[in-house]
Each structure stands twice: as C-alpha cells, then as structure tokens.
Amino acid sequence: MNTAIVETINVTREVAWLPWAVSYFFLIGLSYGAFLLSLPGIVLRRPGWEGISRLALLGALVCGLTAPVALLADLHQPGRFWHFYAHFTPTSWMSWGAFFIPLYLGGLLLYAWLAFRPLLAAHGNEGGRLAGLARVLAYGGLESRPALLGAAAVALLGAVLVALYTGVEVMVVRARPLWDTPLLPVQFVLTALAGAVGLALLFNRFGAAAPNGTAVVRMARVLAAIELAVLLAGALWLALGLSGLGPTHAEALDQVAHSPAWRLTAAWAAGATALTLLLAWLRPGSGLLIGLLALHSAWMMRWTVFIGGQEVPKTGAGFYSYELPLGPEGLLGIAGTAGLWIFILVLATTLLPLDRLAPAGRSGA
Amino acid sequence: MKFDSSQTPAAGCDPSRRAFLRGLPVLTAAAAVPVPALAAAETRHWGMLVDVRRCIGCQACTVACMQENAVPEGSFRTVVSTYSVEVTDAPQPAGTYVLPRLCNHCDDPPCVPVCPVGATFKRADGAVLVDAERCVGCAYCVQACPYDARFINHDTNKADKCTFCAHRLDAGLLPACVETCVGGARIFGDLNDPEGELRRRLDEAAGEVKVLKPEQGTSPQVFYIGLDQRFAGKVEGQGSLWKPQASHG
C-alpha cells in the first residue's frame, strides 16, 4: 500500500540560531585561521612569510575582536552573558567555549601587541596619524622574543580549543543529522583556513601600494592545497553518505538529497571550491578573485549549515522556509557586524598602516 | 487519574465544581491510607499516554495550553499535527491522521546536558523544566531537542516548552491539555502508581505502546497508542499547507 502524505496543520519552528551565529562562526574561524597563518612568518621566521604573517595577524585581530559581539547578539538575553561564568556546566561544549574564547583572545591580543610593538614605535616616531597613541601602545617598542613565543603558545592553545569547540558544539547535536556528522568540525576548520588566506590576499591587494606578487603566489599555493583538502573532505562526506558506511552521513544526505534547492547549494559550493582551486593553481596571480572566492565559500558553508540546517524540520514534513529579515535579527545584524569589523580595521590600520605590514619587495601584481 | 494525598487540590486555586468533586475522593483516600500515599508522592514519575485513536484533532488542547501558559501568538507548546493521507494505489478518498505533539519529558533528555548554564533540568518527578531566571536564551536546547518541542519565547526571550503544566501539578491539577481534551485522548498520571489509570492503560496496551523517535535513545515519557510508524519520526510528505510562525517582535 503506497500512501501520499500532505501535512495540513503543523508548526513552523523558526530559526533559533540567527545570522548573528553565522557571523560569529565565520569571523572566529577567520580569526583562528589567520592566527595560524601568522605563525610561519612571526614565530617560525620562515623566509618570505613575514609580510603575509603580519597581514594575517591583523586579520586575526580584527575578526577576533568582532566575533564575540556577534556571539553576544545571538543570545536572546545578552545581558546575562555572565551566567556562563557563574554557572559553568561541563557537559556543554558551549559552556567550555565561554572559557576558550577569552583564553584565545587574551593570548592573541598579547601576541599581536608583542609582535607589533616595534612597528607601533616606528609609526609613533615617524609622526603618522595618532602617533601619540601609537607611542603609548608601543610602550618603548622593545622586541621580546621569549614573551612573544609564550604569548603565541597561549594563543595557539586557545585557537585549537576554539576550533575544537566550535566544531564539536554543532557536531554533537544528534537531533540534526546534517550537523551530527564527524566530518563537520574538519570542514569548519578547512574552510576557515581557506577564508583566512582569502582575507590575507585581500589585505595584500588593497593594503599595499603595489601588491607583492611573490607573496600572492605563495598564498595561492597554500590556498590551493587547502581547497583540495576541502574538496576531499566533501567527497568523503558524500561517499560515506551514498555508500551507507557512515550512518549519520547517510541520514543527513537522505534529508536533503531530494531537494532541488539543496542540490543547487551543493553544486554551487563544490563548483566555487573547485574554481578557487583551479584558479589558485593555474593562475596564482589572481589574488583578489581567489581571495574573494575563498571568503565567499567560508561564509556560504556556515550559512548553509546553520540557516539551511534549521530549515529542516525534525518531525514535520517538507522544509521550513526562511526569509532573511531586514532588522537586527537579519540583514541589519549582518551589516552591523560588518560595520564593526570595518571600524576596528580602520582603527587598527590607522595605527598600523597596511603598507607597513604588507610583504616587502614589491614585484608586480 | 488518581491523585495521592500530598496533592491537595489547590485550596484557593480553582474553586470550580470539577476541582471540588475531584478533591473529594482524594481527601477520602488520604484519610484512609495516608502512609502509602505519602510514600508514593516521593517516588512519583509523571508521564502521559496519547491515545491517537481517540484524538479528533479539535486543537482544544492547543488552545487550552496557550491560554494556560500565556504562549505568544504563533508559538506552541503543544499542537495536533494533522495530515491528509491518501492511498495512491487504491480508489478511496484521502483520510486524516492526527498526532498530538508536546515535549516528551525524556528520561534521557538531550536538551539538559547541552545547556551552558544549567538552566534546563529534569525535576525529580520527571518533568523537564527551564529555570527562566538562569536561561540566557542561547537556544542550544532548541537545537538539541529531537522533537522540535522547544522554542524561544519572544515575550520573555528565553527558552520555552511544555512543562506538563508543572504549576498545575504542584497545585494538584491536571495539565491544561489533559483537562480540556474532548475525546479523552490524553491520559496523564504517575507511572510509578500501579493502581493509576495511566499505568493500567499502558500495561493493558503493552504491545501497542510506542514513542516518537525511539532510535534517538531519549526514553520519552510521552507514550502513544495508535502511532503509525510513518509518523513516528520525521514525516515524509508534502510540507504544511498552514504553518503559523512566530516572529521576532
């Protein structure tokens, strides 16, 4: 007996994690990704990486300072954020996250300050904009390698824990098969790294008077490798789902595979990643384009996971339909977060102009 | 259902004739066997049986719940999901299937461990509740619930859900949805009371009793008789023709 079921009355459960959450996961991902990108040049002193790492560190700082604001805004009771610290709940990854974020940001701020102190002092001494403030912040401008390494270690621990919690927090939600896949944290990390390289490429393109071609090629190579890993992770996800070897992947695939909208989304995501990989590999000089593509993929992945994931009813038939509201819970929230990001970027680059950070040795585009 | 002696029927809470009449046997029973009844009060475990065969889909429970608990417009703590089911390979008119839904007050509730501030908890009597004074409105519990039973209340900006009408239980009253059910489809009571109607009905229908999404391993304490397997999990079919939706105010 075959039946056709039409749901005539049911409830739409609205999206409870709003675009604020997408903004947070996007920015905190870019931040820890960019922080990792700052290590080769600043901590490991790899030749050719100095400028890239300085730009990446600026990105880590700007994104890292913006992200918690978006996270707070996603709480429906933001004034109660202190409850996270008053009522620690070890069974909740979100509760752990409330401690990981300040650990990471504390380490990052200290690391960035120690790394940028000499540059701040130089800016102050040369009488640039806000030179007085730069001199105060530089606090003598001394370079302390042991302190820098210590701060980098704290920030690295924080970054790893933030990457872990942001992935696992979502992965443990068994009620949503699309989230409950072991590959999700890996995919978050990989797309965050790709987005971070994209951000550094953007800074390099717009920041320097003449963008550094060698640095662009170097970053393009890194981006190509990351995008290859993104594609492999996606292919593995699909293979586990299609073969049935991964029951959670199969369940997740089953929920959305028949939806034309989801098929288009999957094709778009895979196509954009493949295009980024091809361009980064074959035309490594196209820094701006591949940078924007990588950032787009990082945002889109999170939007699809969070907003798209919440459009799948847990018990009801079909899908819930989401339309981006124009107010603070939607478009205005995204624009506001972007505005804060730009404000912090302007403030930071007033003290630390991009051309002072950008890779040395200009050579074409 | 049978009430134990610790649940005096709320002096000053509900002066209705119904409450008064219900209270009489309680007082009588309390006078007759006070000790066993008090002992039962300490070990009671609330549960609900939904006899789908008796539900007529009138949504009286839905409305009663909204009125009792001041649920904002567009949000629901309980609802009767209604489906049109057509047999495609036989010439017969489509039928209607109704399924009352509410929080399942799971014995292993996935909403509890994820709460980052310990605001969601399971009471000793089995009811899963939210401490509104502590809730930060992060909605992690909303995501973790496999039954879509939770939501953010935009009047309070906190997590909201069915409480089994805990305030009524504490006053010796039945949940509003049970009280108002026209067909007697919702049977509420103490699962640990062997003499109670709930336990008796569950035992009688032992082979037919099911729960929603058993594969989730949540041990729901809302049981169903007449639950068609096609509706026990995510329903495969065409999406709702009418879905009221809450909105940020």
UniProtKB/TrEMBL annotation, chain A:
Keyword Transmembrane helix found: yes
UniProt key word Heme: no
Annotated transmembrane regions: 20-43, 55-73, 93-114, 147-168, 188-207, 219-240, 260-281, 288-310, 330-354
Originating species: Pseudothauera rhizosphaerae
Major site of localization recorded for this protein: membrane
Family listed: Belongs to the NrfD family.
Protein name: Tetrathionate reductase
GO CC terms: plasma membrane
Taxonomic lineage: Bacteria, Pseudomonadati, Pseudomonadota, Betaproteobacteria, Rhodocyclales
Keyword terms, alphabetized: Cell membrane, Membrane, Transmembrane, Transmembrane helix
Topology class, membrane: Multi-pass membrane protein
Pfam families: NrfD
Subcellular location: Cell membrane
From TrEMBL, chain B:
Magnesium in keyword set: no
One Pfam family named in its UniProt record: Fer4_11
Transmembrane segments: none
Ranges where the 4Fe-4S ferredoxin-type domain occurs: 46-76, 126-155
Keywords (A to Z) from UniProt: 4Fe-4S, Iron, Iron-sulfur, Metal-binding
Keyword Iron-sulfur recorded: yes
GO molecular function: 4 iron, 4 sulfur cluster binding; metal ion binding
NCBIfam families linked: DsrO (NF045797)
Protein's name in the database: 4Fe-4S dicluster domain-containing protein
Lineage: Bacteria, Pseudomonadati, Pseudomonadota, Betaproteobacteria, Rhodocyclales
